[in-house]
Amino acid sequence: MRPQQNSYKIILLISIGLIVALALLLNDSMILIFPLFLLIWMFFPNHVEEADWSKNKSFIFYLIIGTIVGLITELFAILNNLSKPPEERILFHPDPAINIVLAIFYYFPIFFFAAIILHKYKMTEINVFLIGGIYGICTEQMFQILLSFNLILWFYVFLVYGSFITIPYTIFKNRLNNFDLKEINKLKSMIILFIALLLGFIGAFLLMGIAWILLGLPLV
């Protein structure tokens, strides 16, 4: 490894350590998804995967990995809220176990629609991160974050959403490059991905509503 690459990784590792230390100091576990993204981005093998997977197989595994990453993000959210009384918890449901079940129905359609687009169009990590972050600002807490016009909150949500939405892409990017993906204007591809995430958002709450009823949870 070249000295310049070593220095680059050392700086990133120090940055990750500082972010983790700050998260622990502020008792904020949600932001830990960002250093997790940085670690995966840094250390995930940078080689082109052998083209032994079909698009369908890649799609299925992308969906599984994406949902798992979403659930890890949700675990961070639960840790963030455990010290609060149930009525003040910012979760799908104040009970952690029920919240995790509902979270499956939230993250699955998000990554389903994202996987469709990312298996059709060429993207970059930066573009996926940007759109993931913007999507988070627009939809988090049912648009309350967007309407708060709080730039600090916007940046915080941008890092969280950008990270968990980009992690599966970082893991699969070399394999995706083996497929014959369509190249279109970057802005157009980003808009398409954003629309896909919004469709996932709508689908998520439809599925969560069904799950809510099947779990026998009160409607009001």
Tell me what the structure shows.
The chain has 220 residues and is mainly alpha-helical. The chain has one domain (49-214). It is 72% helix and 0% strand. It is built from eight helices and no strands. Helix 1 runs antiparallel to helix 2 (33-43), helix 2 (33-43) packs parallel to helix 7 (151-176) and helix 4 runs antiparallel to helix 8 (186-214).
**Strand segment count:** 0
Largest sheet: none
The helix fraction, in percent, is: over 70%
SSE topology string: HHHHHHHH
Structural class: mainly alpha
Averaged pLDDT: 89
Low-confidence stretches: none
The total tally of domains equals 1
In whole angstroms, the N-to-C terminal distance is 59 Å
| Rg estimate, integer Å | 18 Å
Number of helices: 8
Shape: globular
Residues in β-strands, percent = under 5%
Itemize the secondary structure elements and their pairings:
Blueprint lengths: L2 H23 L7 H11 L11 H27 L14 H23 L6 H15 L4 H5 L2 H26 L9 H29 L6
Helix pairs in contact: 1-2, 2-7, 3-4, 3-7, 4-8, 5-7, 5-8
Q: Could you give a quick summary of the protein structure above?
A:
The protein has about 220 residues and is mainly α. It contains eight helices and no strands.
